[in-house]
Amino acid sequence: MTAQQHDPRRGESHTPGLENQRTHGSFGGYVVGYIAAMLLTIAAFVMAPSTNMAPFSIEAGLAVLAIAQMLVHLIFFLHINTAPVQKTNVMAFAATMLIIAIVVIGSMWIMAHLNHNMVPMSQVMQMQR
């Protein structure tokens, strides 16, 4: 039996297909990710108090920077990519994003309907008199 084979009696195990894969990124990749994250953070802090743009443009710009920041972290630090060995990580990430979207959208929908259906405070005060 060679060293590459799996022997269940010895308790050794390995993930198939990962014999020649690195589990972590390179130092250069981390530096590039760090610089990109810092630039995106600085851009957000510069954009937020800006008075040169319309408020909706600032909000849209901050949303774009937030998505870019998330992608930088996923790619450079969490090493999520489209490689076949990353299939479970990508699926777990997609399921997490789906759950977060359901919670956020559902909460906004409930709050909007509660706000629409609530009795105004002036009527509540008149009913108590």
Structure description:
- The chain has 129 residues and is mostly helical.
- The termini are far apart.
- The radius of gyration is 25 Å and the shape is flat.
- It has 4 helices and no strands.
- 64% of the residues lie in helices and 0% in strands.
- It has 2 domains: 25-79; 81-129.
Summarize the structure.
The chain has 129 residues and is mainly alpha-helical. It has helices spanning 27-47, 55-77, 87-117, 121-128.
Q: What is the fold's blueprint, element by element?
A:
Elements: H1 27-47, H2 55-77, H3 87-117, H4 121-128
Helix pairs in contact: 1-2
Write a concise keyword list for the protein shown above:
129 residues; mainly alpha
Can you count the helices? 4
Using only C-alpha atoms, the radius of gyration works out to: 25 Å
Strand content: under 5%
Q: SSE order, as H and E?
A: HHHH
Structural class: mainly alpha
Silhouette: flat
Uncertain segments are none
Overall mean pLDDT: 83
Strand elements, count: 0
- The separation of the N and C termini measures 90 Å
Helix content: 55-70%
How many domains?
A: 2
The biggest sheet amounts to: none
